[in-house]
Structures are given as C-alpha cells and as structure tokens.
Amino acid sequence: MTEKKLTIALAGNANVGKSVIFNQLTGLHQHIGNWPGKTVEKAEGTLHFKGYTIDVIDLPGIYSLSTFSIEELVSREYIAVERPNLVINIVDASVLERNLFFTLQLMELETPMVMALNQIDMAEKKGIRIDHEKLQRILGIPVVPTVAIKGTGVYELLERSVEVIEKGAINPPAIKYGEEVEERIRKMAKLIEKIPFRYPARWAAIKLLEGDEQVQKEIREIGSENPPTAERLAKEMEEIHGHSCSAIITSERYEAAGKIAREVQQIVPKIRPPVSETLHTITTHKILGYPIMVLVVLAMFQSIFTFGNYASELLSNLLYGWEPLFQGLLGTGIVKELVWGGVVEGIIAGVTVALPYIVPFYFILYLLEDSGYLSRIAFLMDTLMHKIGLHGKAFIPVMLGYGCNVPACLGCRIMETERERLLAAFVTTLIPCAARTVIILGLVGAFVGIQWALALYIIDLLIIFLLGRMAFKALPGEPTALIMEMSDYRLPHLKTVGKQTWFRLEEFIKISFPLIVVGSLVIKLMEILNLLEPIANVLSPVTVTWLGLPAITGITLIFGVLRKELTLITLATLLGTTDFAQALTPLQMIVFTLVAMLYIPCVATIAALVKEFGWKKATFISVFEIIFAIFVGGITLRLLPLLLG
Amino acid sequence: MEGPRETGKSELPLAALRDGESGIITSVGENHGGGHGRGRGGWGFKKRLMDMGLTPGTRVTVVKSAPFHGPLEVSVRGSRLALGRGMAERIFVEIIK
What we know:
A: Rossmann fold; Helix Hairpins; B: SH3 type barrels; 3 helices; disordered N terminus
C-alpha cells in the first residue's frame, strides 16, 4: 500500500456513546462543520495509527436508514456513495435488539464493517451478558466489546478496523428475509443491476419495495422504469399479508435482530434494580418529576448567574485595565476612539458575556444531556410544548436559548421537520438570553425589585406561549408527535461534554464576534460624525410619544441590536450615571426592559436565522419582533398604572 | 376511551392501556385504503414508528403515562421509548391479560 490515508465512519443509534468513542479516537484533532448543503452537523477528526492517517467521520445518531430525517439521508448517502474504507457500528450492549436492527441495515449497504459493542459495563449492571464471539460468528464481522468512557477496547477496535480494511473484504448482509420477500428483492435487484445506479442493487431493491421516495426519485432521474415494477411487487405483498410491504420488511428485519439478540444474550434479572433505573422512575414520576425538574433548572440558573456575575466583573476589570495602554499607544484622538471604543470594547464585552455565562451554561446543559436527564425533561414537557405545536424535544433548544440565542437557533436542528425547526427557532429568539438577563436583573431587578424582574420572566413565558401558539396555527402542516428513546442514565464523559461546550463556544465566536466588531465600529463612527442625536430625534415619536421614554433610549436600543446588554451599558454612558433611578421612573424601567427583551434578536441571532432559514424568514421574524416589542411596551405603559391603581 | 374495553373487543389504541398493561400491536396508523400519503398516519409517520420497533406483532408494555394527557413511556424490544399521546392513539393493540 502506497496510499496511507484512510476514512472511517462511526455510525450508530443516539446515546450509545458514539461521541465518546469519537473523542477517544481523535482526541484534540477534530473539527465540526456542516454536511455540504445540509443543516446537519458533521464532526470530523484525524488520528495516526500504524502508519496510516485515518480520517474519522462521526455520523449523526440515528435509528434507521430510511428518509424520515435529513440525518438518516445524509448518513446513508455518505456510506453508500462516498464509500468510507470502513464503518464502525457502535452498539449499546444493553439495548441489543434495537441496535442490531440498525446494524442489519448498515450491512445491507455492503460496506466493510466492525462493531463496537459498547457500554458492556452498563449491560452487566442490568444483568445482560453478551457472547460477543457468537455475535461475531453470526454477523460475520469483528465485534469488539468496549467501555468507551474508560477507553477500554478502543485500541483493539482500531486494530480490528485496520485489519478489516487491509483484507478489503465485505461481508454479505447477515439477514435473509422470508422467501416471499426475498423472491421480490431478487427480481428487483436483477433489474437494478442493469442500470448504473450509485447504490448497491440489493439495497436499492429493498428500498424501492419499502416505498422509499428518495430512491424512487433518484432512480427515475436516471431514466429507469423500475419504480412501477417495485410498486406492483409491493402491492402483491400487501395483498398476501394485509400489511404494507414496508411494514413487512421492517418487521422481518426486527425479527431477525431480535432472534440474533436472543441467541447471544443471557439475561439474569437483578434482584435490586440498578441505580439508573430508580433514578429514571423518580425523575419521570407523575408528581415528583415536575418539582425535581423545576429545582434542577433553578439550581442550574442560580449557580450559573452567581458564578457569571462574579467572573464577569473580574474579567471586565482586568480587560478594561488595558485602556491606558491603548491611550499611551494611540493617543486620545479619533484613532484611539475607533480602535478602543469600536473594536476592543466590542471584543471585551463579547468575552465578558461568553466566558462567564455561556461557557458554564453549556457545560452544565451538556452534562445533563449526556447523563440522559434532558430526554426526561422532554418527556415531562411534551404536553406543554404541544400547545405551541412542538413536541417535548423542542424544550432543549428553548433551554439553550437562556444561554445564548445563537446556538439555540442552530440547536433547533434536532426537530424533525423544517416547519418545526422554524417554529422552535422563532420561539427561542424570544427567550431572554444571558445578555438580556443582565438587563433584566441590572435594571428592573436592581432598581424596581427582584419580584418585578421575575414577573418579567413570567410575562415573557406567557408571550412566548401566545406567539408560539399563533405561529403554530398560522404555519401550514401537521405537528409531529414525540417519539424518542429514553436511554438509561449514565455517568457523563467530562471530556466529551467539554468538547461539545467548546464547539458551541466556537460557533458563538465565529458568528457573533465579527458582527459585534463591525457593528461597534459603525456605531462608533456614527457617534463621531454626530449622527446619533438626529437618529434619536427621528425615533422620538416611538420612544417618547408611544413608549414614554427619554429620547436617548432610541440610541441605546440601536446599540442593543449588536448585543442586548449594550442597551444598558450605553444607557449608563448617555445618562452619565449608573444610578438609573435618577433618570428613569420604575415604570419607564419596566417598559424599557420589556422592549429590550422582546425587540429583534441581536445581530448574531439574525445571522444564525439567516444561516438556517434564509433571508426572508429571518427578516420577517426580526421585523415582526421589533413591531411587537414596541406594541407591548406602549400597552404596558398605559395599562400597568391602571392595574396597580 | 373506556368504550372499547367494555364491549369486550380486545383491540384498542395503545393510549387506552393502563399503566403496567401490555398488548400485541395489530396495526400502526394503517389507513386500509393503501396509498402513501404523507399526512396524519401517512408513510413517514408509520415508517418512523416501525423503525423504532413498533411493528405489527410486537409486544409493548405501557410503563406509565405522563399527566395532563401527556406522552406514554412504553417498553418495547428491551428498550424504553417516550411516545406522544397522538401517536399512541394511532397504534392498535390486542391487550394481553
């Protein structure tokens, strides 16, 4: 072999420890991008082993290779068309049957394979023992038992993988369907073999019989007449069995998986249920589940903001200490103003929000996700999320939104359909992120009272609920119901959680920082050119007449487009004091905060929306939220005094 | 929801099972007219359920259901699934005593 470069793809169900194995294999040499033209994350890393440079691709966690989600589509296209040298199938040993269902499908793609039988320790705890040698014989592929979070078996996995690649053998699919199905598969496959199709013939035949729309489309594109034949054959099957052909094939595949599982595993029921089981029962309990959830979430916020406030102040004192240095270098003229006031202050502000708030926020959130708790929250919140046309899983991006709306928008990818992604993203842009919390707590919380700050959060939730419901009614299409595996609780792998946090931070920095810096420069320029005052005057019908605020707030709200917490910082600058009570009445503070909380997602969030949904939808959401915020602010100004008598 | 139970007919939606009860799946959102509609009970929905292991003939146990008409926790093929009530209403089972 002269070519020393290899590609290995990791494939498996969600929550089987795939990312942990990915991390064990590639360490620090990895990056996250997107699949070309798709909003699906692509994690890639490299490693060196026995003279090879191995490129490792972490495919999304999926349960099947049909076309239900983009993730499934991306995965099967990658394996069948790009043809990695090897696929490592990562399998959760404690849920063998479901995992083997996926394994059998991977084998049908006719790719060289090795199986990592992961989490064998957890399986043992549940009383499940697997004869991996027998499994290896039945499947005809190497099976390596692993405990990824301890690194056990990972080296052997790599050794086996390279061996398989060097031998270059593909093992025939381990599954034979019933004779009626097999006969039709053979018929179809023979037809497909005659045409230059990019998928394996047998696989394509099965997919056509299953009524797979993507394969139908692609095979039609190369001018094949096969789909009608497949439909006819599928109809025959339906008439014989009374179930759709796709149901028959899926059933048989599951039967095969179940049969293998029963042959290789030995289940010794434990007298005492494992801790993870007890934890599951308590955290999803009809009554107890809810207070536990509220406590966990509150504790999380409380600790993050306590830590954040402290760290943020420390950091900003440290960084602002550099100002004299810049002054010394650049003087006090216009250049210093632009460089310091425009660029450096922008970066400082970004850093003082990102590091103290966003980093711990994501770290804790991913800790909860990795351990399995977030899926329990999704279970508990499903009913509520349904009211706004989303299912329980949407609660995850909503939670992300409390940290920063940018990753939250990107996090909406976990929703299954485009419609739900958009709905969820719309909702998350209304969630008060860390920066907005700074305003709420710093203005209303500090000068009006903490109970008022809390009231604002509750009002925000009500607004989200109302708007979400309206958007849900307005958007065409049916809501998808929740269907989600709740894997056993497990100890999170700190390195993997740290990595995920880092990637979110990177995303935030990449999208936000350039915009913040450019935006800060533009506004600084406007300030130098004395354009701010005229703009404030132009806005005064809205700010002064409708919202009852001082005219200068118009300027602060413009700054807020860059980053929400700037509204507070510029307000202090323009007022010349941080004692806001001198310049604003409590009512004005509430109105101002409400508007700042609701109007337009910041520029970075708009960029994230554009990235995910295109200009049109991003503009629509932004314009809508500006108008809506102003509307709510004005109403509050007039209504609140009446309510309080 | 209690209707079909009292008539003695054993086929009923999964959502009607009480906590701890099991059933064998008889059909999944099947619109017997055939066709591959994408809407409610359509191809995508059925395929999803089956891909998750809820195929006809499979034994499924309702472990518990969340309050306020919430989702069900079901145990199927040795794994634990959360299933929206809407979905559970379109899966028909024959109850096992």
